[in-house]
UniProtKB/TrEMBL annotation:
Database matches in SUPFAM superfamilies: Bet v1-like, ISP domain
Protein name in the entry: Iron-sulfur cluster-binding protein
PROSITE patterns on file: RIESKE (PS51296)
Record GO terms (molecular function): 2 iron, 2 sulfur cluster binding; iron ion binding; oxidoreductase activity
Species in which this protein is naturally found: Paraburkholderia ribeironis
Cleavable signal peptide: none
UniProt keyword Iron present: yes
Family label: Belongs to the bacterial ring-hydroxylating dioxygenase alpha subunit family.
Keywords attached to this entry: 2Fe-2S, Iron, Iron-sulfur, Metal-binding, Oxidoreductase
Amino acid sequence: MSVIPIKTHRELVDSRVPGCGLPGEVFSRQDVFENDLDVFFNKLWILVGVTADVPEPGDVSTVEVGKASIMIVRDDDENIRTYRNVCRHRGSRIMKEPGKASVGMLVCPYHQWTYDLDGSLKHTSHMGKDFDPKCRSLIPVHTKVVGAHIFVCLSDDPPADISKLEEVMTPRFAPHQMQRTKIAFESELIENGNWKLVVENNRECYHCEATHPELTNSFLPEDFGFCPDGLGEEDLKSYDTYVARNAANKANWESEGYICSIFESLDESVHTNFRTQRLVIAGSNESQTLSTKVASTRLLGDLTRRDLGDVHMWGHNSWTHIMSDHSIVAFILPIAPDKTLVRTKWLVHEDAVEGVDYDLKTLTEVWLATNQQDAELVQNTHSGTQDPAYVPGPYSKYTEAELDKFCRWYDAKLKEQSI
């Protein structure tokens, strides 16, 4: 009886038909998952939190990325710092569980080695006069704060092109003053699917009209994708109206200094994969709510204008939507080949008061519903890709072009690592 050889990760990706999805084994195998963690979550920049996670000096937010654990810290000078959550003595976790805490110092629970918020080792016992604490500071993690977004890279050689994301996004975030926000609500959802399927689902809206009634209430239908084939005169006129509305909004916003244009850094040559645009919101053009009006009357920063649409940004582990009144920041962390943590945060102005300036249900109901719907879609897709009958089909060039770009980028990053 002949034995069919198991394809390597490289061979699996090479077998992808151009313009089609990845083979099912890329979503389920443990060796592929471990390679993905190493390349896409250890060697590239990833989003792990927002500045509002650590609003005061001494606040700590602990995040797990595969086997790694990092501590996001607000120091005494109110700077954001990140460290490996590993004591420099015998490796104990300093913060025993992921999540948030407020501390004066970072104290290892094993032998009470004590670190300042700047990472320096301040106290030990029984180590003798020859012991040099300067050689045992906490291990820092490369960190970049852009707006309210905290990006880290666990590699010793982080990709330099994070500077392009910073250059592009800083002026787009600036009017919203994202560091003057607080977390009104946050959720964690474990989706029963591979992280790449979560990304693919987020990068297309082919599925949106049929599955996201709450979200699409604030979307213009043409934003789901537009295929002119077979359309009648009325539909084509509707599309012309859409184009004209977008152009008018863009001209109006840009006359007041709000950047609107699409910027993409998605091709095979880049490491820091991201896309941004300011989109028109349906209806009142104010916010992603069921009414399309602001959820919070206390606008972000010093804004006075409500109808500023949606500044979106997504990367290979995150997506963000910023309106005049609030922002949704979500990021993913792989747990297993078939499990992905989706962490979502709703940000409002730091001085906004629940029940006075905003109603929590109005603020959160659209994306709570959308996240749950997406989790079901991802689970169903992951299951289907593991069926022996699964053969990857073609992407729509009108609504899924970004997925083919993602596959090509994914392939290129693996080749760079010779996987």
